[in-house]
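Archive transcription. Copying these from loose printouts into the bound notebook so they stop getting lost. Printout 1 of 2:
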Amino acid sequence: MNRKKDHSAAHAIRSRVLRGGSDRLWTYADFPDVGRMALAAALSRLVKAGELTRVRRGVYYRSKTTVFGPSKPDPEALVDAAFRARGEDALASGIGAYPRLGLTTQVSSTVTRATRRRVGRNFMSNTIPGLRVHTRLRPLAAQKGIRPVERVVLDALRDIGRIPDADAPDTLRRLRMLLRSGGLSYSRLARFAAVEPPRVRALLGALGEDLRSSPHETRIPDSAIRGLRASLNPLTGYAIPGVRSVLATARAWRVR
């Protein structure tokens, strides 16, 4: 009976892998409904059959045939798969993610992820030689449901003035444009910012008031602005050069 059950599980796993297409990474986390021993055995058989490649412990890859031979996994996708295999939350962050939002034109060879806890420096060294993975501690446990793009925006406010090829005014203009376009929810950002440093909350508050008062008025809920203001010490100031040249509301948020 157990042998029949294992065979059924192996067949289901193989079918799922084949349906998932090529050039895809798989981890144990992708099969939450399958027992660990049966899953390990099934994936091992797929490796022996040449249908999967074991990239590292708990991470498998189904390649795609190209004119140059079998494809290789995308480095960033591999990093994310490795985090999933460890049961770690990890979201795109920092210089590697900023070009995708138009915050800088510089491209980094370092893969940066926001995580709940520190990861060893040699985390990926045995998987992709030369790949550098940098982790940044972020309050992800208190930001349940945060989208990767929202994490990147909050990190951009943390890093403002230190983003390559972008000064503080450049960063704020781009974020203002993204919020006006409707691609980002200000209310969600304000909620997740509750556990961010005070300067992030002050910048986001000033940005929200600026959006409400500009000719291209954007709908920003009063409750979001009030919540950010109430979370700040009214006597604390934040020195961020160039912000007042972009946000007329910066003074009211003690940003100078």
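Printout 2 of 2:
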Amino acid sequence: MKQLAFKQVDVFTAKPFLGNPVAVVIGAENLGTDQMQRIAGWTNLSETTFLLPATAPGASYRLRIFTPRRELPFAGHPTIGSAHAALESGFAKAIDGKLKQECGAGVLDLSVEEGRIFVKAPQPKTRRVDAPLFGVKSALRVDVGPVWVVADLGDARAVDTLEPDMAAIAELSQALDASGATVFGRTGNAAMAFHVRSFAPAHGIPEDPVCGSGNISVAAYLRETGLLKEFGPRYTARQGMQVGRDGRVQVRVSAEAIEIGGEAVTCVDGKLRVD
């Protein structure tokens, strides 16, 4: 029986037991896809990742990302948490504060900046959809690897008090071939522009505590609809309060790219036994 290095990292927080946890298995090149999926089901977190040696030229490492039910080409908080684990364990080293992550979405640029890790997201693909949920007439379907149906609820209080219909969200997700639904609302506080919530019941994740790809999708919505002019190209979003995992996501948006970033902290550091 082999032992592999294993970390559980809380992302978008500097305090343990807040933010969004990701399980990271380090040096997993001898594991098969079925083994990885079983491990992801066992950890029962929204995502579990596997750090592997890079195969793409110039990449720092390769990352595979799994929900309890399937593999993803990209996800936000697993990318940041896995980069934190790779650096902390010595599996990878930043060069001039830069990393390159190879994953299903390609080779992505990451930067380490004053204790925070930022990732340049895959370019979102967007289209308007009818979304008879949350009292809105239409929403934006945003594909960044995971696919989110994004709805603007206007006020942060509407987001905070929302009681989601999980069956309806799962049905909509299946109809639109989406991971789930992400909603956002304005706080009126320049230091914390939005509250965000993300729901993916069709993939075994009723509410994702602090969702990186969901926040990327909100930024894409703001850029696509012209609402970004109200908030500027940099803002901070808050997510996770309703599930006791309060986190902060820093967002940077330009015409060319969307970046998200935040802090991360290791809560579990040990060994995983595998057959």
